[in-house]
Amino acid sequence: MKLKTALLGAVATLAFAPAAFAERGTDGEVKIIYWQAVSTLNPYLSSGTKDVEAASLVIEPLAGFNEKGEVIARLVTEVPTVENGGVSADLTSITWRIKPGLLWSDGTPVTANDAVFTANYCMDPAGGCAQLARYEGIKTVEALDDLTVKITYNEPRPNPYTAFVGATSPLLQAAQFANCMGAAASSCTDQNFAPIGTGPFRVTEFRTNDVVQMEANPNYRDPAKPAFATVTVKGGGEAAAAARAVMETGEYDYAWNTQISPEVQGQMEAGGKGEFIYAFGTLVERIEMNMTDPSPSLPEGERATVAHPHPILSDIRVRRALSMAIDRDLLVEIGYGAAGRATCNLVPAPEMFASDNTDCLVQDVEGAKALLEEAGWKVGADGVREKDGMRLKLLYQTSVNAVRQDFQSIIKQWWNDIGVEVELKAIDGSVYFGGDAGSPDTFQKFYADVEMYANNFDGTDPEPYLAQYTCDKAPSPATQWQGENVNRYCDPAYDALVVELGRTGEISKRAELARRMNDMLTKDTMTIVPLVDRGRLSARSLSLGGVVLNTWDSELWNVSDWYRVK
Length: 566
Known about the structure:
- This protein is α+β, with helices and mostly antiparallel strands.
- It contains 15 helices and 22 strands.
- The chain has a domain of about 260 residues: Roll (Dipeptide-binding Protein, domain 3), CATH 3.10.105.
- The longest helix has 18 residues.
- The protein is globular.
C-alpha cells in the first residue's frame, strides 16, 4: 500500500514572513477574551474548544496544522512521511524525532518518555479521556531513545497524523502528571490548572471560569519569541460584549468566536478600532438527539446512560419530524449572514469528504406532522401531542449566547407548530463546555432531551472526528462523564466502518466511507441534526499584528508570532 500525500494532507515547513520584533517580551501585554471562560488547561479532560485553545498557549503537540490544513512540525525535526522514512512502507507505524535541546518551561528536558506517558494517560480506560478518538487503533507507543517516539498501529494506518498532532493532542510532562493516571486524572487540580509546557507562555495564575494569567516562557525554543511579555485570557459574559471589547472600547486585543448577528457586526465595525475575521472550515452548529433517558427520576448512576433508551427520541420518526420542521436558511439569515451556510452534514469540508445530502434543506412542517401521526403521537386538547399517557415534551439546552437563544426561540416555535411542547434551558458556556464531572449541566452529561452546540476537528481528515461516535466513547459515570459520543449513539455497523476507514488508503474509497458515516449519523438516523456550517468569526484589534486565522487547529496556533503594531 502506498501512502498518498493527497490523502494525508500536504506536509509543510513552518515558516512566516520576517517577524516585526527582535526580542522576547518587548511588546508588553496582549489581552484575549474568550466569552466562554476557561475551566481547565488540560484538553484531555475537556471537549470544550475554549479549554483546548487556551491550553495551546502552554502545552503543544509534536505537530500541528497550519491555516491551509497542512501538517507542520512543532516539537520535532520534521513531519514523518513514507518518503523520509518516518512512516513505515506498510503504514503500520510512524516515528517522530523530537528536536534536541527542547526544554519544558521548568527547565527540564523534553523526552520521548513524555509522549509515551501522554498516550498511556489518554488511553487509560478509567480516565475518561476527552480526546480518545485521536488514539484510535494504536497498538503501542514506545520510546526508542530519549528523543525518538514510535507509534505502532494494529493494522495499516493511511492517516497517521492523529496522536500528538493538533491542539487536541498535546504532550503532558510525565513528571508533573505521574500521579494523575486513570480515575485520579480529574482530581489533579494543580496539574490541570497549571500544566508545565513547551509553548510560548507559562501559567502564573488560573481562576477557573474567570481568567488565566500567563508570562513568556523563558525556555521557549525561539529566543526572540514571543513578542508579548504577558498574556491575559479573560472569560465570561457573552459574545457581543466580547466583540465590543475589541471593536469599540479597545479594551482587548482579540475576541474569540464572536457569534453575533450580521447586523450587530456592521454596527461594531463603525468603531474603527478592529476588524472581524472569518474563514470556513468544519465548524457545524447542530442539535444532538439524546438516545438515552435523562429523566431525573432515574438513579444518578443510570440517568442518561445506555441502560435506559430515550422514551421519545428512540423513535426515528420523531427525530426526523423535528429536523423537518426547521428552516435552516432562515437560521443562517438570522444568525450568521455571509459567515454561515445551511447544511445537512456533520462533515461539511473538505469537499471530497462532504456528502451530497441536501434532504434537510427544505422545511416541511406538514410532513413532520404526518410523521408524528404515523408514530402514534396524537394532538391533545391543548395542542400538545400525546401517546400512551405521555406528553411530547422536550427539554432543549444550549449555552448562553444571543444567537443561540434566537435559534432556541424560533426552533421552539417551529416545534410547537407540529405539536411538541418545548422547555428551553441556557447554561453559561464555561459550565456547559467545562467537563466538570460533578456538574449536572455539561454537554457531555447531557441531562436534557436535545442540545445544541458546534465543534470541529483538527486538520483536514475527518477520521478522528467520525471515530468519536463509536459505542465505547459514550460518556458515563465510569469515564468521569468524559467521552466524545455525547448522544450515546451506538451501532456496531458504524463501529466497523470506523475500523475500515482507519485501514483504507485509497483516497476515493476513504472519502466514500467518510460520507457514508456522515449520512449514518445525520440523514439515516437523525441522531445528529446539522443546522449551519459556520465560518469561524473572531475579532482582532488593528493594533495587533501577526494574526492568521486557522480553521484547522487552535485559533491561537501562531500566537508566538503575534506582535504589537507600532
